[in-house]
Every structure is written in C-alpha cells, then in structure tokens.
Recover the amino acids of this structure.
C-alpha cells in the first residue's frame, strides 16, 4: 500500500513502487506509450496538431523513463533541488499533455466520417491522452506537497 508518511524524503530503489506520487511513474509510462503508439498508427492528414501530440508523448515518455531511472538508482541524493525539479517537470508534462489532448480530440471529432478503424484508434488515443494528463496532474499535486514539506 502506498504511503504518504514519508512525504519529506525522496525514495530510492524499489521504494518508488511504494510511495505516492512515485507509484504513478509506471501508469504514466504505460498511458504515454499508448498515446505514442496509437497516434503513430493513425492516418495523418493534418500533420500539425498530431505532430505536437507525437512530440509531447515521445518527450514525456522519454523524460519520465529517465526520471524513473534517476529515482530507481538513487542518483538524486535526497536533496530539495530534486523535489523542486520533480514538481516542475510534472507540472510541465501535465500542461503539455493537456495542450496535446485538446487538439487531438478536436481532430478526432473532425474525422468521424473517416474509416472506422482509424476513428477508433483516434478515440483510444484521446482517452489515453486525457488519462495521461490526469496522472501527470495528480503527480504534480503530490509532488508539490512533498516539495513544500521538504
């Protein structure tokens, strides 16, 4: 069960699997990866909004993976600077995903007369993009609490 009793310290090793907000790294990677895969599988007519969605999903997936490895291997040395960086990164990631999910939903609505297969892929990508946004937002809130209690 995840605990919030140790909010003033950054976990190391497998401790990231037992504390809030660090337990959210895995779902963020899963939903972000699904957005990346589903958008990459669709037929891209308006390249501009979907290009931004691809950038956001690849960027956030990569940085979240690196961030998870930093916490997993204990590179952070439990300093308050890392808690601040954790909060700032997740705030930016939540904002990026929201700015990508809205145009993706709009383009999906505009393509409802397209092939049913691609339309379903687009709907799935929109749902996972909003789920990733929600996860990053929740992670931002808990990271802010941890940052303030440092």
């Amino acid at each position: 069960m995840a605990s919030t009793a140790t909010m003033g310290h950054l976990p190391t090793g497998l401790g990231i699997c037992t504390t809030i907000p660090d337990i959210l790294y895995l779902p963020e990677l899963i939903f972000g990866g699904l957005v990346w895969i589903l958008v990459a599988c669709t037929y891209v007519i308006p390249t501009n909004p979907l290009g931004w969605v691809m950038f956001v999903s690849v960027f956030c997936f990569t940085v979240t993976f690196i961030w998870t490895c930093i916490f997993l291997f204990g590179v952070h040395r439990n300093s308050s600077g890392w808690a601040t960086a954790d909060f700032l990164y997740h705030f930016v990631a939540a904002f990026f995903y929201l700015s990508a999910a809205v145009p993706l939903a709009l383009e999906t609505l505009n393509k409802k007369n397209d092939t049913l297969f691609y339309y379903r892929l687009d709907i799935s990508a929109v749902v996972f993009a909003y789920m990733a946004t929600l996860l990053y937002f929740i992670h931002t809130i808990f990271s802010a609490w941890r940052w303030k209690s440092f």
